[in-house]
Write a structure and sequence with these properties.
alpha/beta; 22% strand; Metallo-beta-lactamase, Chain A; 11 helices; single chain; 6-stranded mixed sheet
């Protein structure tokens, strides 16, 4: 989806804070941004006023520029009391160990995200580029594009962006009330984008720290990966975001990318519609058996470089799995070892 502002939503703040600066968005809640070396060029992080200091929610990637900006903030904010990480992805978890060591504080996160971070850092439990590319090959990715991705992801890029990770943590589970200063934040666990993604809702402030689960201008990446090659993450994601309808319609949503906004119920509806439109486009294309690689141009109407194709393949497989498990498509492995899908009855 477009990265331009969504005109249907209400954006209370026009501008993103400059890197290293903070903007208060609710009593005791401060918005900061850190740069990213990707097309998505920054991440939103959050500082919560705590008893005698601050709680950090998400940390940015572990590079010199981000740590220099953190140091600038420390001159103003002084004491950090704890670090909370919403999920294991490097732009969220990269500096967790550095911050925890620097201030002698605990890391708080869900168990699924904590263990996944360690598994990906060590290339364990099937978290390797070669394992992912083998899944993609079985779903039709040709040798040329596979070679390009292999060259791009030859090293463990995750370990470069998350060079260390804490060896202990405080576990957060669904429904926990995390006390930060005078406010309590209820843990809402979502699935599909990451194993046990943490969002935090404060009823007293009517504020939701949404992480990557509810973004205002782009649709969150939801992919099938080698660790769970037969999974149905898109169903899990859609079920997870539907739960945000349980929150007040005017909740202030603090996303990890894009600006804070109001209109969570509408945004959930937009995301659901977006995926339903992609399903419909796929079904129109499945009048004969096709692989996920065959369908990239249906789902993504723009040229894709190797980095983008890597994530696009995961998303294409996720959409096809969702149709298959819903009984709307059939599939079979051809004599060439490639999985292909077709509409039921075609």
């Amino acid at each position: 989806m477009s990265s331009r502002p969504n005109p249907s939503l209400d954006y209370p703040w026009r501008d993103t804070p400059q890197p290293g600066a903070a903007t208060q968005v609710a009593p005791g809640v401060h918005w900061i941004s850190m740069p990213l070396p990707f097309k998505l060029d920054h991440i939103n992080l959050w500082l919560l006023e705590d008893q005698g200091g601050w709680t950090i929610v998400d940390t940015g990637i572990a590079d010199a520029q981000t740590r220099t900006l953190w140091e600038k903030l420390f001159l103003e904010k002084k004491t950090i009391k704890r670090v909370i990480v919403t999920h294991y992805h490097p732009d969220h978890a990269g500096n967790a160990a550095w911050l925890c060591k620097r201030f002698g504080v605990e890391l708080w996160m869900t168990q699924g995200e904590y263990l996944t971070a360690h598994a990906v850092r060590s290339s364990g439990a099937g978290y390797t580029a070669s394992a992912v590319l083998e899944v993609f090959r079985r779903n039709g990715l040709d040798a040329e594009r596979s070679a390009g991705m292999s060259a791009m992801r030859g090293n463990n890029r995750y370990a470069e962006l998350v060079p260390e990770f804490p060896l202990s943590y405080r576990r957060i589970i669904e429904g926990d009330r995390v006390e930060v200063g005078r406010q309590g934040w209820r843990a809402i666990i979502g699935h599909g984008h990451a194993p046990e993604h943490l969002s935090l809702y404060c009823k007293e402030l009517n504020v939701l720290i949404a992480g990557d689960m509810l973004l205002s201008t782009i649709s969150t990446n939801v992919s099938v990966w080698s660790i769970d090659p037969e999974g149905d993450p898109l169903r899990l994601f859609l079920e997870s975001v539907a739960r945000y309808r349980e929150l007040p319609a005017d909740v202030l949503v603090l996303p990890s990318h894009g600006r804070p906004f109001r209109g969570a119920h509408l945004r959930v509806q937009q995301l659901e519609q977006h995926h339903q439109e992609r399903f419909a486009e796929l079904m129109r294309s499945l009048n004969e058996p096709k692989s996920a690689a065959d369908l990239l141009e249906v789902l993504f109407r723009r040229p894709l470089d190797a980095h983008q194709t890597f994530f696009a393949m995961g998303e294409a497989i996720a959409h096809l799995h969702c149709l298959y498990y819903a009984g709307k498509a059939r599939r079979a492995v051809g004599t060439d070892g490639i999985m292909r899908y077709a509409a039921m009855g075609s």
